[in-house]
Amino acid sequence: MSKKYKLKVGVQENLRDLTVEVNDNQPRPWDGSDHLKYIGKEQTRIDGREKVTGRAKYTFDRQLPGMLWARFLRSPYPAAVVKSIDSSEAEKMPGVYAVITVAEKLPMTIRFAGQEILAVAADSDCVAEEAVRRIQIEYDKKPFVVSADEARKADAPRVYSGMNSNMRETRIRPEDARESDYDRLLSGSHVRVDQTYRTQVQTHSAMETHGIVAVWEDARHLKAWASTQGTFAVRNDLADYFGLPKSNVRVITEYMGGGFGAKLGGGIYYIMAARLAKKTGKPVRLMLNRKEEHLSVGNRPDSVQHLQIGADRNGKITAIKLKSYGTAGIGTGAGTSGPARNIYQTDNIYVAETDVLTNAGPGAAFRAPGHPQGVFALEQAIDELAWKLKMDPLEFRRINTAGDERRRVEYRIGAGKIGWHKRNPKAGADKGVIKRGLGVANSVWYYIYGRGFVCSIQVHSDGSVLLTNGVQDIGGGIGTVMAMVVAEELGLKPTDIEVKIGDTQYGLGPASGGSQTTAGITPAVRDAAWAAGQRVLKIAADMMNEKIQNLELADGRILVKNKKEKFITWKKACSKIPGDQFTVSGERVKDNHGLQRRTIAGVQFADVSVDIETGVVTVNKIVAVHDCGRPMDRLTIRNQINGGVIQGISYALFENRILDRNTGVMVNANLEQYKIAGSVDVPQIESVILDVNEGQSSTGAIGIGEPATVPTAAAIANAVYHAIGVRVRELPMTPQRILAALDQTKGVK
Amino acid sequence: MRKFEYAMPRSVDEVFQYLENNAAVKAGGIDLLDRMKEYEISPGRLVNINGIEALRYIKNGNGLRLGPSVTLAELAASKKLTGAWRVIALAAAGAATPQIRNIATLAGNLCQRPRCWYFRSADFHCTRKGGDTCFALDGENQYHAIIGNSDGCVIVHPSAMATALLALDAVIVIENGKDSRTVALADFYMTPAQDIQRETVLQADELITEISVPGTMQGWKSHYNKLKEKQAFDWPLAEVAVALQMDGKRVKDVRVVLGAAAPVPMRSELAEMVLKNSVLTHELARTAAGEAMENAEPLSENGYKVRIFKTMIYRTLCHAAGMDPFAGGV
Ligand SMILES: Cc1cc2nc3c(=O)[nH]c(=O)nc-3n(C[C@H](O)[C@H](O)[C@H](O)COP(=O)(O)OP(=O)(O)OC[C@H]3O[C@@H](n4cnc5c(N)ncnc54)[C@H](O)[C@@H]3O)c2cc1C
Hints:
heterodimer; A: alpha+beta; five-stranded mixed beta sheet; B: four-stranded antiparallel beta sheet; 12 helices; 28% helix; binds flavin-adenine dinucleotide
């Protein structure tokens, strides 16, 4: 059975009517006419106190009685064959409990420096580390290749023997496209940009490293605390590997120190920890150290992007052609074409992307995979085109995204906040050594959500409310948002709601990837809360002798609509719950209608200064204007934007995984020489969050985590151009690169 | 990290009882522990001198006397470090992070070992560790030396305090429980040509007990600048200390010291020659900065540092003289 509702939907205050049909067991979706008490406001985290006082226990903090400490032995060579392993010395050491190898038998092929060969468990971290050092490995070293450019050459050593090239098959879109058709369009264009852009490898560098504490409760029951953004994925992997029913494996992530996509599952480390725990009959802790974190558990692949874009006299884009390649090391996933295909309005978009294999640690999903790279190239090329047309780069974007109302609003708000129209229309025009510039870049990401997530709510006769679901909070604060949704629906306060998450014993929750956590889980939470509310309202209706339709939940009371003096308290109503408590649940189902706009927009503006005698770029300010559907907690959204911008600045100016060209070993596998923006590098960040109501689900939430980091580096690059009048088409924009770019133009002149 | 014994002497005399065999002096431990973790050294005993208050002082009179265990934070905040000695406070304030400066000591900073990423990593057995390859020479050398890099090791010396103190003709007092000797800071450091495996003349059983600056430089002006890629803690791409004795507009005497340029902190005599006895103008400062880089021989990836040094030498000279470097044109 279903019901129809007429909703107000649209961007900000610009609302139109939309009729949707929703299931009977769901509430009327929140829409643009709803002014809610908590949703859309700022709510501090319900677990903030635990975190800042250090009481919150992360996987890293977890220590169990009798627990062993595990360490990996990793290959120091990027390409080799392990011929023999002698661990006799290590096994003789007091305190060493087990040594197990990753491969079932030798020889074992090594494809990157840092690849796991074996793991040791001992009664202390020191002993485990020393044991690893006493193990003798005989390697047969092989030729290797660590740069994508080198790996593309015909005579390059093969990363996977037997393949006739290190290049995977090129992916062309549209599949049946003929490149020459696009070349014709481009060469017939009034103006054209034809440039190559390069981005580096960035490692995730989350504060908490990857790791797990695994304990077998008996031969058939495994329990593990894991630092993961996919509790259920880890559970499934462990159940699969050990041939256990999923019901016998429990994975817990109470608090987590970040993941950015590298912790979505598929880790050798948690299999090895569980194997060691099984073998020794003791709990085993295996947390990676910072070096291992850089080497082996993921990164954002690099890219070389050749972009051609044409435009007509009026500034309309005629065609976009992108050919790119990059390396995700021994893995794949170096594509960058998302932005080129999904921001600008033209039917003529051709992309060809190639993964190049190298002897380096595998890439992994990383906060908007492919997108900061793609936008760095696309948004600079768009800027270059605008400058060629002698057109305001913002105006050029406006013309070519005219159909997207969100972008129109975002451009206007952002331009106002950064002072766009007061900028010098010339590039490199400032006098003196320190030059200032403004830049803009678009973001893009997609509305993604999963289904089948189940939230349970228990209401007790004392009025207390418990919300459970297996979703993990990777730091975004989803538990707080879930409490807000329940509080909103039940007329309680967010702090009244006991939230238990991060445990696969509860209902299925989303993996925290694709910016889909809030969109995925909040409708299930609201539906469960709505069902709980209906139950309590029914009790209250009997008690108050009123019709249920006439009652509403607010401020801890059940009130008669339009007769506010007549009420009973929430607690009083709950005291009449038959049998002391009840449990209801809500399930994430398909949206009530498909959205016309599949994308999430967003735009950022950067204000930078460049010292042309030292090449140092200083970011003075970032204005970030983003949409994320209906905003839930504006504070956690702002946190995401701040974090995304900071990570974007860091990507733009500092971060760079450096592999030694002669040995293939990473030289900066720490947080000193792998440089990450620190507090002093963080500018003023002004964020604006749009209200976009679509009414597609009961909460209307979409997502923000990834879009927030996508455009920052490109906005900075465009600002650098505006400041110095020279393009820097390679990341990171270090003093070395800025000076080189300045030198080049001097040479040309 | 290997296991070790831990000694906590309460007096300088007691230190020497413990400083034998495979023992190492530990002051703040910032540098030492990092190296132990990478197995660059594995001392059998750490002798923690942090509890010895007598090694922690800043005394000024005719000259300046600094206890070896004074922290960078104390130097950065000291009101006694004005005039010629300001360069010390500036260098201390610019090093590392606030947390590290609170524990890192002056002598520890002078004796810290290079940050070359090959030297620091257990994965590379380089010339400085007794191996036969300098991996930086044709490897990832963007942060390495641009001067004095033809002797089989192309590190830059990391000490900001050495850069500053060299501009003040500082002297190091060294004791071993029996004898005491003083060494000019300039002679304290060794080039790879002198000894490729050590940066200083300090012996394993010796303790630095004082760092002093002669009173003869009172009345000089000084300045220190550091250029970093990243403005939160970062090592310098270039650092420059200048001490200036002016006679009206004329430079009477001068020290120009370059850090992060060569395997040892170095005075640029080339720059000093240009400046001495000349009227200090923006142009002269530029000329001196250019001259300082005359003998630069950058490696494959670090040519950009030459440009940056020219800028930083120029700017530091201007700052020391009280001139606005940005008033002089590009
Ligand atoms: C992230 C980071 C950034 C940094 N940035 C900078 C920077 O920008 N500029 C800079 O200059 N430094 C920087 N440092 C280095 C830091 O300043 C030094 O590591 C610190 O000063 C060392 O002092 P310590 O007291 O901890 O020395 P320790 O680690 O205790 O000792 C270092 C060495 O000195 C010896 N030693 C110490 N005291 C004596 C003594 N009295 N007599 C004889 N030998 C002694 C020890 O035996 C040891 O070999 C940075 C360090 C880090 C970790």
